[in-house]
Specification:
This protein is of the alpha/beta class. The chain is built from 8 helices and 7 strands. It folds into 2 domains: 167 residues, Aconitase, domain 4; 30 residues, no CATH class. The protein is globular and about 70 Å long. The model has no long low-confidence stretch (mean pLDDT 89).
Length: 203
């Protein structure tokens, strides 16, 4: 998993509440288990019409937000089913951070397992970010070490994060990577078990 330290990127405003995982990545794009190639399906029904043509008024289709790395959205982002493809699709599109007033629990947990940083800010701070993102300067900064979001205007907002999750994000550790931190102890245990119970090695 790629480490997250500081992100300086365009911020795109999506002022909609209760965006569920089927809206983030519709079910027809869930046939594979790969984490790549999902960008095409991200917000598909928002981004494309029935003929598969881009809707020019949708924020991520507008030229000033092309390449956005931060998405600021309405309340309860990521509700609905527990599909892990949702953070995969966001990251495949190039979004590394989502900012909202609240997230659905399962989506929130999935983000940390995949290197996508979910940031919770106060309602008035989220609104200010959205308002500024609609202006001429679309670049903001997200500093995980300092736990701050710097708006295009220079306004700084603090956010809270679980210390263990923060540490794993900074070091780029998912569940497997965290387990492999104990590789020496695991190898020693397996060696001792093989000596004490050799018949298990043939099982």
């Amino acid at each position: 998993m790629e480490a997250f330290t500081r992100l300086d990127a365009k911020v795109a405003p999506l002022p909609l509440a209760n965006i569920d995982t089927d809206q983030i990545i519709p079910k027809q794009f869930l046939k594979g288990v790969e984490r790549t190639g999902l960008a095409r399906g991200l917000f598909y029904d928002f981004r494309f019409d029935e003929e598969g043509r881009e809707k020019p008024d949708f924020v991520l289709n507008r030229p000033e937000y092309k390449g956005a790395g931060v998405l600021v959205a309405g309340d309860n982002f990521g509700c609905g089913s527990s599909r892990e493809h949702a953070p995969w699709a966001l990251m495949d599109f190039g979004i590394r951070c989502v900012i909202s007033t609240s997230f659905a629990d399962i989506f929130y947990n999935n983000c940390f397992q995949n290197g996508l940083l979910p940031v919770v800010l106060k309602a008035e701070e989220v609104q200010q970010l959205m308002d500024e993102a609609r202006g001429g300067n679309h670049v903001c900064s997200v500093d995980l070490e300092a736990q701050t979001v710097t708006a295009p205007s220079g306004a700084v907002f603090d956010f809270d994060i679980d210390p263990k999750r923060k540490d794993k994000m900074l070091r780029g550790l998912d569940a497997i990577g965290e387990t492999l931190q104990a590789k020496d102890q695991i190898d020693l245990y397996e060696m001792k078990r093989a000596l004490a119970q050799p018949w298990l090695e043939d099982a």
